[in-house]
Amino acid sequence: MSTDAPSSGSRVSGFAREHTLGVAGALSAVALGLVFAVVGGLVPGSVLPRAPAVLDAIPTLNAVVSLAAIATISLGVRAARARDFETHRRFMLTSTGLFGTFLAMYLYRLAVLGTTDFAGPAAVERFVYLPLLAVHILLAIVCVPLVVYVLTLAATRPIADLFDTAHKRIGRVAAVLWVVSFGLGVAVYVLLYLVY
């Protein structure tokens, strides 16, 4: 057997490198499709296990995860500015893991229990809570393809090659929007579960 033949992993990596935008678009579509399927009720909560203590803890856990993600994103940006790209990579992968954890817990709770009604005054709901929630959700949706794109770029190229891509430019925008989205999510949590 020849050792010169590329492995299937290198073929996949080569394809993703040559078609980064398409691969990132496909991955983003799958991720957002799953989110919209759960939000749209296409994933029946009855097929998921019910763990009442876990379901009750998820909002607080997600607020903690969001605060941790704000910290890791900020530290990752700081590391990139200091040209410590290995530390930057670790922080951004941690941020991605935190986002995945947040999303899995959020979607599980949403599928099983549905949405949580706002218990505060109607004026606060209309002029504060719902606008914060809407911007949070919109930014979270926008962040998915941006984050997936910069991660795909980073996963398919050595660090030196990333300087010739849109990684820095798109990553900067993604990081800011990601931090704002997580921050607004914490504000929504405070209004929904602590204040009212």
TrEMBL record:
<feature type="transmembrane region" description="Helical">
    <location>
        <begin position="173"/>
        <end position="195"/>
    </location>
</feature>
<feature type="transmembrane region" description="Helical">
    <location>
        <begin position="57"/>
        <end position="79"/>
    </location>
</feature>
<feature type="transmembrane region" description="Helical">
    <location>
        <begin position="21"/>
        <end position="45"/>
    </location>
</feature>
<dbReference type="InterPro" id="IPR007352">
    <property type="entry name" value="DUF420"/>
</dbReference>
<keyword id="KW-0472">Membrane</keyword>
<dbReference type="Pfam" id="PF04238">
    <property type="entry name" value="DUF420"/>
</dbReference>
<protein>
    <submittedName>
        <fullName>DUF420 domain-containing protein</fullName>
    </submittedName>
</protein>
<feature type="transmembrane region" description="Helical">
    <location>
        <begin position="91"/>
        <end position="108"/>
    </location>
</feature>
<feature type="transmembrane region" description="Helical">
    <location>
        <begin position="128"/>
        <end position="152"/>
    </location>
</feature>
<keyword id="KW-0812">Transmembrane</keyword>
<keyword id="KW-1133">Transmembrane helix</keyword>
